[in-house]
Amino acid sequence: MILPDGYSDVPAGKIAAVVTHLEMKARPEPRDDPPGSWTLRKVDAPALYWYRDLHRRVGEEWLWFSRARMNDAELAAIIHALGIEVHALVVDGRDEGLLELDFREPGQCELVYFGVTAGLIGTGAARFLMNRALEMAWSRDVSRVWVHTCTFDHPSAVAFYQRSGFRPFRRQIEIADDPRLDGTAPRDAARHVPIIE
User: Fold this and answer.
1) Does position 54 have pLDDT exceeding 70, yes or no?
2) CA dist., res. 195 & res. 197, Å (int)
3) Which residue of 8, 58, 152, 158 pairs with 63 in a disulfide if CB–CB is 3.0 to 4.6 A?
């Protein structure tokens, strides 16, 4: 959909975000890991309850709702698919970060989900996680790694991705039902995005 220059109304009960797609087409220079006691573990065939819990704890504040709305069969078909890798950032024995890589398209890797729980924001954990993500992505036969984020995300997300070596290449507007109105997310989630009923 192409919107005209200027303002466009968003219907009540909906949310709208500007989505920015970013990519890198060459392996970036490695960045130093920040100090911290994080580890990363690959989760083969993740249990749905485990995935849903971590996805919620990492993404609820940023209105990650698409996976939350999926039934078990739909979710399993994605996260158990050949070419999908799910990893957890582990802190003090707890899973506190989510990294999902999609290698299903030949020559490409998409960072489908990337984030840490609220208590780790600003600690360097996301830098550690991104360093591992890029190592894993570029260890394969790929010529492009890409990610997308939106205006519901942390205000520093685009700058973080750019510092990591990604460059913006596309912008879109996403309009969806507000997940706080149908119970997919709590009403007090994402206070930086007002509810309009």
Assistant:
1) yes
2) 6
3) 152
Report the DSSP beta bridge partners of residue 170: 21
| Cβ contact 34:82 at 8 Å | no
Beta-bridge partners for 167 = 23
The arrangement of strands across the sheet holding 84-91 comes to 38-42, 84-91, 94-102, 108-116, 144-150, 14-24, 167-177
pLDDT of residue 21: 98
Quote the strand ranges of 25-130, DSSP E. Answer: 38-42, 84-91, 94-102, 108-116
105-145: pLDDT as tens digits: 999 999 999 999 999 999 999 999 999 999 999 999 999 99
Helix (H, G, I), strand (E, B) or coil at 13: coil
Helix ranges, the chain (H): 48-59, 72-79, 125-138, 157-163
Instruction: Copy the structure tokens of residue 162.
Output: 């750019």
